[in-house]
């Protein structure tokens, strides 16, 4: 019997799989501009902080296996930015292309709208054309291109910002 994917709030038992997804992105891509793998204590602290701040962390599961996660957090730490969030969506390398990213992004957008937020920001490596197209397909528009602000794998990286108007989405 084929198992379907579903989204739910992240639970502590999801963290080992989230850690694997996170570290795969750190070690093999420019999706995360960190270079050192994280550990389970980091993930537990991150989840606790997200919950304390009232920020969502969603897991996508197939059966009992966590195959993706998505979250958002305050865009900048100043009070004036309180209606703007920056989101992240990551999918296990073996489940990409199955619509999981869309499910997670849709859940995040719905939650942001329900939370009364105004804008959602995506910060994406400029060479990640697939992610940029994905976001544009979902109504995000490119609003900025920062040259050589990141550094990873021995080279400088450009970062693009896209934003979504949550009130008109």
Automatic annotation (TrEMBL):
InterPro entries assigned: Acyl_CoA_acyltransferase (IPR016181), GNAT_dom (IPR000182)
Keywords, comma-separated and alphabetical: Acyltransferase, Transferase
An annotated Gene Ontology molecular function: acyltransferase activity, transferring groups other than amino-acyl groups
Residues of the N-acetyltransferase domain: 5-163
UniProt keyword RNA-binding, yes or no: no
Classification via PANTHER family: N-ACETYLTRANSFERASE, UPF0039 PROTEIN C11D3.02C
Protein name: Phosphinothricin acetyltransferase
Species of origin: Arachidicoccus rhizosphaerae
